[in-house]
Write a structure and sequence with these properties.
339 residues; 55% helix; four-stranded antiparallel β-sheet; alpha+beta; 14 helices; 10 strands
Length: 339
């Protein structure tokens, strides 16, 4: 995986070539000669869903649904992935074992995510009929309260649940116990969620830490200050800021450099960073959509006035002056970087 980045190859196509036992280019959207490769595009997309799904804590059912295949086929793909990349499997298992032992996980900089639900028992059983009874406390030499004696049925239900029954049998046991005044609290959902969060917290927590390191570098950088740059927002792995128009290109280059260097502090895999210069955030993507809809209306026979009125009606929250720029294709390109 690291070599794929070092050699500037596509990660998911590289992984797919191992899992599907074929050539690297068989898993790309286009072959090496530029020919369209729809099957390769599908294999690459499937592998992206598998890799990210496993790292974000998805199970086989979820992966199968994501790639549009059966449970068995999805499990076979996952097994081949782990066979081809056993270190990933070990890393996931070690992460979960450490979380069970410590009650937390750490990202690349040691920032912790606490997961107390991992310490929960699978089931908690309480006899609601076992009232507290009056008793004598010899330590305090006073009358006090002591717990009531639970029904022997509590132990019965405990033994039944230790057999790990299927869902239908478990639900039937819970209903039967409730009818007898015995409450069974099933913690398996909380535990499963915490298990998924183990790996997810390290992956996405690591990405978050790298972004925060980048924000510190950007906020302290004298060159950016001299260029009039101000950091406005951080959205996931994206930094958005503003500067004088005439300094936009220099700021974009410097911002990109700082974000990549921030990642290099904690990760040996080389990062990429895409910069975009625009007058309003997200305007280019949204503007392209607006103009495309406008052009489509005109092509379908609407007059330019009718098409304009329809665009205004569909985008009442947007200033007309902005919409006019989008329709005319004259909008400029706040600077934002995502790492």
């Amino acid at each position: 995986m690291i070599n794929a980045y070092l050699n500037k190859k596509d990660l998911y196509a590289t992984v797919a070539s191992i899992v599907y036992n074929n050539d690297y280019w068989d898993n790309m959207e286009h072959l090496e000669d530029g020919t369209a490769n729809p099957e390769g595009k599908k294999r690459r997309s499937n592998m992206k869903s598998v890799v990210l799904g496993l790292l974000y804590g998805r199970g086989t059912n979820s992966v199968a649904e994501q790639i549009g295949t059966s449970y068995q086929e999805a499990q076979e793909i996952i097994d081949r992935f782990f066979d081809g990349f056993p270190t990933v499997k070990n890393w996931i298992q070690n992460t979960q074992e450490d979380a069970y032992r410590n009650g937390y996980v750490e990202d690349v900089m040691g920032r912790r995510r606490r997961l107390p639900d991992l310490k929960l028992p699978a089931f908690e059983i309480e006899d609601l009929n076992a009232k507290e009874v009056a008793g004598f406390n010899p330590l305090l030499n006073t009358a006090g309260k002591k717990p009531g004696i639970p029904s022997p049925r509590v132990e019965y239900y405990k033994q039944q649940l230790l057999k790990k029954p299927n869902r239908n049998t478990r639900v039937a046991l819970e209903n039967q116990a409730a009818a007898e005044g015995i409450k069974i609290k099933n913690n398996s959902g909380f535990i499963s969620r915490a298990e998924r969060q183990c790996v997810n917290a390290r992956v996405q927590g690591g990405a978050s830490t790298i972004t925060k390191l980048a924000m510190i570098s950007v906020s302290k950088d004298e060159e950016l200050k001299n260029l009039g740059f101000k950091l406005l927002l951080c959205i996931h792995d994206e930094l958005i800021g503003e500067c004088p128009r005439e300094n936009a290109e220099q700021v974009a280059d410097r911002l990109t450099q700082l974000m990549i260097e921030a990642a290099a502090l904690v990760c040996k895999v080389p990062m990429k960073c895409d910069a975009e210069i625009t007058s309003r955030w997200y305007l280019s993507d949204f503007g392209d959509t607006v103009k495309s809809n406008y052009d489509k209306l005109v092509a379908q026979g609407s007059s330019t006035e009718e098409a304009w009125e329809k665009i205004k009606m569909d985008n009442t929250m947007i200033k007309e002056s902005y919409l006019r720029e989008m329709v005319n294709g004259t909008f400029d390109y706040v600077i934002h970087d995502d790492i």
